[in-house]
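Lab notebook page, bench 4
Experiment: in silico fold of construct C2
Operator: M.H.
Input chain length: 220 residues
Purpose: comparison with the prior construct
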Amino acid sequence: MIRVLLVDDQPLLRSGFRALLDIEDDIEVVGEAADGVAALTLARRHRPDIALLDIQMPVMDGIETTRRIAADPTLAGVRVVILTNYGLDEYVVDALRAGAAGFLVKDIVPEDLLHAVRVAARGDALLAPSITRRLIDRYVSARPRVAAGVALAGLTCRERETVALVAQGLSTTQIADRLVISPSTAKTHINRAMVKLHARDRAQLVIVAYESGLVTPGGG
């Protein structure tokens, strides 16, 4: 059962998302909150698998809430998925830096919402949609880059290849096909790269890949 926490200051949106999620046999909404402070309290109480978090909220916004969830070792199993509008794109990379696993736009169709929750719950990339790639191309490219040797020196050649493919939005299965290895081997490379780069999840691997120059905006 995938346990979900809904956090948004708009009751109507929470109700709509809850109605979609609650009818699924493998998904359970364990709580709702209207701001980040309440979200932290509920997250510690229920330990959800997924926290769907609005990026702009009163009291504490989604970025700070994400940062606090990521910093709390008791919430290590919680994957944050940010809810945003097209007009708030500039905040998305900051949310990924803070520890978010990915993001969804609020006008997402029901089927895509359910798919995204399941993808995030199994730890796979929630970064494949083209809009996400454009955001990362646009905003990460504007950030100062760290030296590639500093960020990536500890990786094997195969781990570097794997991180580059994660940054291009490929799933574990797609990476395995591209590198002609098994999905379990691909997952091992990804996990080892996350440990070496101190990345919480794949979203942060993407940030490192761009900032180090391993992947370039608009390129690969």
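Observations: The longest strand covers residues 27-33. The radius of gyration is 17 Å.
Next step: discuss at group meeting.
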